[in-house]
Amino acid sequence: MQLKLKRSQRTGGMLGGKVIFALDARTDLSPDEKGLVNKYGFGKLVVYDSEARKKHGEAAYGHFDEGTSSTIGRSLWNNARGIASAAMMSLSLRVTVESLMSGQHIECKDLDELLGAEAAILNACKNLKAYLETAQTFDGREEVVEF
User: Which domain of life is it from (predicted)?
Assistant: First the structure.
């Protein structure tokens, strides 16, 4: 398995004075590794959730929780806000093993978030490699561990 990372930046914002950091990430798997990913359903594993996704998710859960202990009118309002936050969460970035296999473009407003995304992707690829190595051992072989 190989992970290919490419960093770039562009300017954005209303007046074009804001730097936006970008990371393109893609994994190249061997045919055997792709087969294991498909066989064991590793493609749906979440590698990284953006800060915006986490923020909207927390807001949605908060609104729904508030809605359960309120009056009917207030409950409807909180549930509507929860639905709006959940919709925003679904539009925010989520990186899975499957999306990394096809290539993922990530844009961040600050360098800390970009480095966090990169670290999460690196860590997830290490974990995926361990999963794939373990998945290859389910062939009936016996392992002897001495202490």
Answer: Bacteria
